[in-house]
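Our consortium's second objective concerns turning raw sequence data into structural hypotheses that experimental partners can test. To show how far this objective has progressed, the report includes one record in full. It was chosen at random from the queue rather than selected for favorable results. The single chain below, 376 residues long, was entered without modification.
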Amino acid sequence: MEQTGLNTLWFILICVLWIGYLTLEGFDFGVGMHLNSLPRNERERRATLNAIGPHWDGNEVWLLTAGGATFAAFPEWYATMFSGMYIALILILLCLIIRICALEWRKTIRTTTWRRTWDKLHTGSAWIVSILWGVAFGNLVQGMRIEVGQYDAEGAFHALPASDVTWQALADNQHYLTGGFWSLLTPFTILAGLVTMSLFASHGALFVAIKTSGELQERATKLARVWAPIATVLTAVWALWAFFAYSGSAWALLPLALAAVSLLLADLWIFKGQEIKAFAAHFAAIAMAVVFIFISMAPYTMKSSIDPAYSQTIAQAAASRPTQGVMTIATVIFVPIVLAYTIWAYSVFRKRIDPATIPVEPVGLEPKKVRQFELS
């Protein structure tokens, strides 16, 4: 079976969904990474959190949509990826849950210990998940220890010879990651984790710089000047490694070049004090990096590092044509609505936040009155 236009369209749409998630949620993670080091007092810390307060939960919708779209449009891709990377994805999920709890529960109890504990958990989870996302995407570019076969009743895996992998054979056999969790950690994927970590760190610092004012804004700009060059260097090393070692497409050069130009412009504008332009360029760089990753993957959804014959192609992973057709109609209707709402939300909350305007009085319940459900 050959790859169809609908298969290609949905591969592109899933790339777009990941662009939405990583560019928007990336600065949320970056803000969390700096939460315990950038603000100097409670007012500044609350101002920092208020910068992402109206947006972080909406930004996470892009992840849910990307996962749901993958499940519906490419069920075999979803099954292979989520079963093979189960432990890593569970770790990401736990970090996301901790971060949500930290954002929602921080203000509920009126004690410094309570707030500081959740801030530390927030920061720790942001650092961990930022690295894990890079490791995950690094594996998609590099390829994993994937084989085609089936498990017997005793749990032993029997792989088909690579020469026997055909469409007919896939009716009774599946793609499986047989290397285990530790096979996901290689020098290339670990470097990919450091790339996303540094990109999110600089992205978050830039977001605080364009959303706050006063001394907090000045420190955020200085912090961005530290992280942005680090992100540029790490991204350049990883991207060149990825292109020459794992990408067989000349088309990957275009997003690679655009990402490089965007990162260099971001560095230039940061040092010129033009934070808004720098953030826009940084946003574009992350978007182009995602495009580079998906072009480097194509025509596969899951590459095998054992033998190319074991790699899962876009056509093999795809759902039926009627399923993708119905999804396309729904996408044409609802995606513009989501985009319009997202743009509107950022427009409404576009003003800078002055830490001096944050109330001095602490919020939340007194510890002794928690069980009485009283506010004072």
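The partners drew two points from this record. The longest strand covers residues 146-151. Residues 214-246 form the longest helix (33 residues). Both points have been shared with the crystallography group to help prioritize constructs.
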